[in-house]
Write a structure and sequence with these properties.
The chain is α/β, with parallel strands linked by helices. The chain has one domain: Transcription Regulator spoIIAA. 49% of the residues lie in helices and 20% in strands. It has a five-stranded mixed sheet with strand order 1-2-3-4-5, sandwiched between helices. β2, α2 and β3 form a beta-alpha-beta unit. It is globular.
Length: 145
């Protein structure tokens, strides 16, 4: 597959995913985040699309503040995130780098198929650790500590 045809294939796949999302009645409302801290581990629950804008700034501020307050390991619960754009993925990459720099771990939990597909397209599913649910992500932190 040539570079041009790969890019066209990725755009077509993105269009199909957006069409499926609209067909299932998924709305992309404003995002909200909630942070729960347990010692040096925190869970960041995200609701709404993880995309460019003020919502993404709120997400970035929450994980940055968590790290500044001593959190080392972070689980991002993506159960209520219907889609993520390149800016959202970029913020997660920065989060991953910041956490790794302090010896911590970032786990992604409950990501839907469209969110996972965004990571697969960019081949970032090899970088991030995905878990079916928040409990299994938290268990992976406690068992590897």
């Amino acid at each position: 597959m040539s570079f041009g045809s790969e890019a066209i294939e990725k755009r077509a796949l993105s269009a199909r995913l957006l069409s499926q999302m609209a067909g299932k009645g998924v709305s992309c409302t404003a995002m909200s985040t909630r942070l729960k801290t347990q010692g040096t581990t925190a869970v960041l629950e995200v609701e709404g699309k993880l995309a460019l804008g003020d919502n993404l700034d709120e997400f970035r501020a929450k994980w940055s503040d968590a790290l500044a307050s001593g959190v080392r390991d972070l689980v991002v619960n993506l159960e209520k995130v219907p889609m993520v754009d390149s800016s959202g993925i970029g913020s997660l990459i920065r989060c991953h780098s910041a956490i790794t720099a302090v010896g911590g771990r970032l786990k992604l939990a409950s990501a839907g198929e469209m969110v996972r597909q965004s990571f697969r397209i960019m081949r970032l599913d090899r970088v991030f650790e995905f878990y079916d649910n928040e409990a299994s992500a938290m268990a992976s932190i406690t068992t590897s500590a």
